[in-house]
Write a structure and sequence with these properties.
324 residues; alpha/beta; Alpha-Beta Plaits; six-stranded mixed β-sheet
């Protein structure tokens, strides 16, 4: 397996899939860069799993035979050369494909051989996969006796044992307890240092903790894409929360140049809004010192990912309802 992969490790264009009258995915296009963790975010039923199944060759796009779509893994067409393309791909479905009666070592050896690895290369690959997934002490244990969290680790290990350039994870932390979730997220973040990772989730905390970039799906379409940092800033207001031990009347605060609105949150705490191109903090701090207001708090306003996600999806819903 070559160590050098192209800058764009996964590229998909115009993917569409129907199930009867239901259009699960419509005209989806996306790219995944080397060393990037991409979060595919959306409500349950948004089309995330169907999209990942097409990206991994488990499900054929409806428009594949007409050459109206394409999927490339490291520059190799998944639709035309699936065996070659899948050699660069690791996949963990929502339900890990585990043989519960096998030991961890036997199962991962079997997975490596299925991936086309030479028998002589398997021991080293097995040791590395066990180490990366924290399974060194579990190698001889029967998979069915392991906890849900450790079974999920085994599922990830089978996806990375052949050292693929692209790793696809479908809801990797569903059903895990908080400690297990933390461990799996740490592992995903580590994988992103040396692989390209795409994972589906409906958990905003997952996006915030592990993803470099976000694509939001709704009703089978991609409706938003940006870095997770920029997503958090999407549509946010400019302002801050200020706490003053001896606050002046609100009219005094509203009269400071650049402040557009003041909302009193408590006897000593205020929500202050200002224009995006204006910053009245310096003037306010100067006045606070001169007038003896005694500053206790100054916290910039920042929208949560949940706020942004609801804002984006609600806006898309409103647009779609207007078209109907």
């Amino acid at each position: 397996m070559p160590n050098i992969t192209p800058e764009i490790t996964l590229s998909a264009r115009n993917l569409t899939r129907r199930f009867g009258k239901l259009r699960a995915v419509h005209n989806v296009s996306l790219e995944l860069k080397r060393g990037e963790v991409l979060g595919l975010l959306g409500h349950n039923g948004a089309g995330k799993t169907t999209t990942l199944q097409m990206l991994t060759g488990c499900l054929l796009p409806d428009n594949a035979e007409k050459d109206e779509c394409s999927i490339e893994i490291c520059g190799i067409s998944l639709l035309r050369k699936p065996v070659l393309a899948k050699a660069h791909l690791g996949y963990l479905p929502e339900s890990p494909p585990l043989y519960r009666e096998l030991s961890v070592n036997d199962y991962l050896t079997f997975a490596a051989r299925l991936r086309g690895m030479k028998a002589a290369d398997v021991p080293v690959a097995l040791a590395q996969a066990l180490q990366r997934c924290g399974l060194e002490a579990a190698g001889k244990k029967i998979i069915g006796t392991l906890s849900r969290g450790y079974q999920q680790r085994v599922g990830i290990a089978q996806a990375i044992i052949h050292r693929p350039a692209v790793i696809v994870l479908d809801e990797p932390t569903v059903g895990l307890d908080p400690a297990q979730i933390r461990d799996i997220r740490s592992l995903i973040r580590e994988l992103g240092d040396s692989h390209s990772v795409i994972l589906s989730t409906h958990l905003l905390s997952e996006v915030e903790s592990v993803c470099d970039r976000v694509e939001i799906m709704q009703r089978g379409k991609l409706i938003y894409g940006d870095t997770s940092a920029h997503m958090q800033q999407h549509g946010s207001v400019s302002g801050f929360i200020i706490g003053l031990h001896n606050p002046p009347p609100m009219s005094v605060l509203e009269g400071i140049a650049g402040i557009s609105h003041v909302e009193q949150l408590s006897a000593t705490q205020f929500r202050v809004l200002h224009g995006a191109d204006q910053n009245p903090k310096a003037a306010l701090l100067t006045l606070a010192e001169q007038q003896g207001w005694q500053l206790e708090q100054l916290t910039p306003l920042q929208a949560t990912l949940e706020d942004v996600f609801v804002r984006i999806t609600d806006a898309e819903t409103a647009v779609m309802e207007e078209k109907q």
